[in-house]
Amino acid sequence: MNEQDRIHEEKLASIMANAESLKGKEYIDYLLAFLKGRKEEAPADASKQKQKRKQICFHDLTTEECKKLTKTLADENMVYYFNVHGGL
């Protein structure tokens, strides 16, 4: 592991250790769960689950949700948090 990778890993570990204090964490958690279909109903057709490719996103974002997400991700630590939790 090179120096940049080590620094990156340390930064991620620090962010995740202090995740509860991140402003916007609840919104990111809710949004990712919603997009993945965890907060809402499961996919209507069970046969769709048998498709070769797994569906990752079950819902679309509204314009307002996109604006709020953009504002939340203005904080670099939130970008890391978002990515670690499957946001990208």
How does the SSE layout of this entry go?
Elements (H helix, E strand, L loop, with lengths): L2 H15 L7 H11 L27 H10 L3 H9 L4
Main traits of this protein?
88 residues, mainly alpha
Mean pLDDT: 78
> What share of the residues does DSSP label as strand, in percent?
under 5%
Q: Can you count the helices?
A: 4
Total individual domains: 1
Rg, alpha carbons:
16 Å
Helices and strands, in order, run as HHHH
Shape by Cα distribution: globular
How far the N terminus sits from the C terminus, by CA atoms, comes to 23 Å
Structural category: mainly alpha
Describe the fold and architecture:
The protein contains four helices and no strands. It has 88 residues and is mainly α. The protein has one domain. It starts with a helix and ends with a helix. 7% of the residues are buried. About 6% of the residues have low confidence.
In summary, what is this structure?
The protein has helices at 3-17, 25-35, 63-72, 76-84. The protein is mainly α.
